[in-house]
Design a protein that fits this description.
The complex is a heterodimer of chains A (195) and B (357).
Chain A (H helix, E strand, L loop, with lengths): L3 E6 L7 H16 L5 E6 L4 H10 L4 H12 L2 E9 L2 E2 L1 H9 L9 E8 L7 H12 L3 E2 L4 E4 L6 H19 L16 H5 L2
Parallel strand pairs in A: 1-2, 1-3, 3-5, 5-6, 5-7
Antiparallel strand pairs in A: 3-4
Helix pairs in contact in A: 1-6, 2-4
Chain B lengths: L1 E6 L15 H17 L4 E4 L12 H10 L5 E4 L2 E2 L5 H14 L5 E5 L6 H4 L7 H17 L3 E3 L7 E4 L12 E5 L4 H10 L2 E4 L6 H17 L10 E3 L3 E3 L3 H13 L10 H7 L3 E3 L1 H15 L4 E4 L8 H26 L10 H4 L5
Helix pairs in contact in B: 1-11, 2-3, 3-5, 6-7, 10-11
The chains are: A alpha/beta (195), B alpha/beta (357).
Chain lengths: 195, 357
Amino acid sequence: MTRRIVVVSAGLSQPSSTRLLAERLSAATVDALNEPPTVESVELRDIAHDITNAMLTGFAAPALQKIVDDLGAADAVIAVTPTFNASYSGLFKSFFDVIGTDVLTDTPVLVAATGGTERHSLVLDHALRPMFTYLHASVVPLGVYAASSDWGTGALAERITKAAHQLAAAVAASAKRQAGDGFDGVVAFETLLAG
Amino acid sequence: MQFGIFSVGDVTPDPTTGREPTEHERIMAMVAVARKAEEVGLDVFATGEHHNPPFVPSSPTTMLGFIAAQTKRLILSTSTTLITTNDPVKIAEDFAMLQHLAGGRVDVMMGRGNTGPVYPWFGQDIRQGIPLAIENYALLHRLWREDVVDWQGKFRTALQGFTSTPRPLDGIAPFVWHGSIRSPEIAEQAAYYGDGYFANHIFWPKEHTERMVALYRRRFEHYGHGTAAQAIVGLGGQVFMRRNSQDAVDEFRPYFDNAPVYGHGPSLEEFTAQTPLTVGSPQQVIDRTLGFRDYVGDYQRQLFLIDHAGLPLKTVLEQLDLLGEEVVPVLRKEFAAVRAEGVPDAPTHESLKPVMA
């Protein structure tokens, strides 16, 4: 079966180094997989209003819901955010706040971030990694942080390739099961009544 | 089929004037709305139960008893009665008393409530929401049906030889609806007892309603109360009408944009497309409402939310005129024309009386 990769980028400008990093990681992951996957790229900027509305109303508008459904069905997710105030961007966090806590369970995730200076590289480990762990995602060990200065070095490309290979290996070994809707196995009332 | 209105009982400033009604004004407005509902030919008035500002209806049976004294035909109900935080003994007594005063024109909708802090105010724990709803209702169900009850559970003191008074009018327990947006356990509970299931069907896309009703119908049949098509289903709905559709949109928009729950979020146009809210002409409300049947099947009760978000009483009463004169008569006729054979009406006190030999 064709693997499905969803790439989430929270870059705000156009062009965006966050989006560029997401594309590089996506291409490297496609190369690392044995068979070509389908890739869906999500720009959070495009659905920023839907994300806010979902926080206010408690439900996702159709465009956002489709992305949530796609994430739930994804074999791997690449998540890339700019570093704002020493953490992920608010939009990035809001998006993962509204998708629900079971959507990414057991999903292999590659975390990546961009920033103006290399001094923020630990954002991957103090902000992104704990959040995805909370969501029961399976975060691959290597994350990719790209400061402005990194774009001029070969080391970034090397790290992208290594991280992509880890993600591809995680996909191959993945134990992810497709989630049901929670209505399939109804708990019989006698069981509920028994406490 | 029954048609009526359900009220949250919120005290919200009118965003077009900035004026906030007093609690007293809001309470009396709810009574006026209920009386008007009977006057224009609707069947049901249901009040919410809330124990925190900005809501006023903390004591539903007091309000419904007052309305009962001023009406003759209207069925008095709730939306919802908190089965989690109220003592089931007190619910049994309050609603039996209301039945006697209202000549049986009473039913009740059980709900868990969704305001976390309410639970400790009444000595309960929100993490036990579902188990409380299950156990408390199991006791309530017995209190209305057995004259003397011995009982022991997890959440309240045991009962030895307890008799809840007064006994239900004519020995007939009030009909019960179970309301839930998306908890399958509650649909299962309604199905198990052969009670009604009510989907609030406002503020959310129809998908939750569709799945919950389907589950309830399937399990209703499983428990042997009848076929899935015979299960007793109620739906909410939210409307704002003027004869001219654009007038309705223009007038309602400031209330929508500033409403609690969904205000300052999606546009009115997005929200009407994504949820059952209909803002437009009576004919648009008729068409949209008839469409509900497409995804829940033949159903027994339709309640509309028309009095929230700071809409002034005068406007709400005008909504009731439109409902009573132009919308509900057509809905009654059109729903009856397409209804499948063998689908029952919602049970009432009269219909539940045993047939005399």
